[in-house]
């Protein structure tokens, strides 16, 4: 986080340049990961509801724009571009960063809708609600931006807003997870197989989002601690070293946290067969084995307590065939 006195030549500037150079690779890696994500999000092999794909794509878009804004700032700061010229990059980075946090609330709303409309969610896909929710993350970000620079306790107000939205999101996700687990346990849905799949997808994705929430909460919480210390020392020239260290810790934690959540999403989106190929390519231990040995059939008990026998393909292959046929039937 730049400041005018960090442009003064001397020891502080030299250390500050090292901090800038250390942070750059993290954003480059993050941009690379986010740019390859669309190939998996919209792949026909990715067995994820289309509305959830749209929300994830919007989340990744905000992540790419945040990292690009911050990387551009770092490069400009290294080459002594006037700070007044760089302000737009600082503002845009903050807006996209806040939008990323707001998307966690959008995820929880999307999963709540999917739970309430599990019988017909794929057919009545609620596009307007999902798209509008993703768009509204940006006005929310602008409100936080205004609060940060126009109120005396703007940063503190934003922290409270972050915390409130985060707690509501976590409560919604926990309720979604519990309700859908209860449905599976009690076998309370007697509708088509698409409803059974939707319920299980709700469980799988809510579990994923809860994990992402705690990862995000850890990095945002620790970075907020350094941000508040940074703000307290920013106007005191005698605490230059405190300011530069706290600013660096805040920025590095934010970009590492974004990279971690992106990696978790990628692991969720990449099909099992692709992950297996990558593990073999990089000589990693393959933890996921084939569901069925060669020449044997897959047997399992359905949600209605009926023994089901499937062909020689893996469970993922069987599911892909079914949902391809189901999607075609809905288009008729």
UniProtKB/TrEMBL annotation:
Q: Its principal location?
A: membrane
* Ranges annotated as spanning the membrane: 20-42, 54-74, 94-114, 126-147, 159-180, 208-228, 248-270
InterPro entries tied to this protein: 7TM_GPCR_serpentine_rcpt_Sre, NRL-GPCR1
The processes (GO biological process) annotated in the record are: sensory perception of chemical stimulus
* Keyword Membrane recorded: yes
> Which Pfam families does the UniProt entry name for this protein?
Sre
Q: Which UniProt keywords apply?
A: Membrane, Receptor, Transmembrane, Transmembrane helix
- What GO CC annotations are associated with the protein? membrane
PANTHER family registered for this protein in UniProt: SERPENTINE RECEPTOR, CLASS E (EPSILON)-RELATED
Under what name is this protein listed? Answer: Serpentine Receptor, class T
């Amino acid at each position: 986080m730049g400041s005018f006195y960090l442009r003064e030549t001397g020891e502080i500037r030299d250390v500050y340049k090292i901090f800038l150079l250390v942070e750059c690779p993290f954003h480059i890696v993050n941009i690379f990961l986010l740019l390859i994500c669309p190939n998996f999000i919209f792949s026909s092999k990715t067995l994820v509801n289309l509305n959830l794909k749209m929300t994830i794509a919007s989340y990744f878009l905000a992540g790419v724009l945040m990292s690009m804004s911050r990387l551009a700032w770092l490069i400009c700061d290294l080459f002594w571009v006037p700070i007044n010229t760089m302000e737009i990059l600082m503002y845009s980075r903050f807006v996209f960063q806040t939008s990323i946090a707001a998307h966690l609330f959008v995820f929880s709303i999307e999963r709540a809708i999917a739970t309430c409309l599990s019988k017909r969610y794929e057919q009545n896909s609620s596009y307007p609600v999902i798209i509008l929710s993703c768009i509204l993350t940006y006005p929310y970000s602008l409100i936080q931006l205004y609060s940060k620079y126009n109120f005396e306790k703007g940063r503190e107000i934003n922290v409270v807003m972050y915390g409130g939205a985060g707690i509501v999101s976590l409560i919604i996700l926990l309720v979604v997870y519990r309700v859908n687990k209860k449905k599976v346990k009690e076998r309370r849905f007697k509708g088509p197989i698409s409803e059974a799949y939707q319920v299980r997808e709700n469980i799988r994705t809510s579990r994923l989002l809860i994990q992402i929430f705690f990862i995000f909460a850890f990095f945002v919480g620790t970075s907020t601690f350094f941000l508040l210390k940074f703000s307290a020392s920013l106007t005191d020239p005698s605490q230059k070293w405190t300011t530069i260290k706290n600013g660096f810790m805040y920025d590095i934690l934010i970009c590492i946290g974004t990279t971690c959540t992106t990696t978790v999403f990628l692991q969720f989106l990449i099909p099992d067969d692709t992950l297996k190929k990558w593990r073999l390519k990089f000589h990693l231990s393959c933890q996921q084995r084939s569901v069925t040995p060669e020449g044997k059939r897959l047997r399992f008990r359905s949600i209605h307590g009926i023994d089901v026998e499937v062909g020689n393909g893996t469970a993922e292959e069987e599911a892909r065939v079914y949902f391809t046929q189901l999607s075609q039937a809905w288009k008729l």
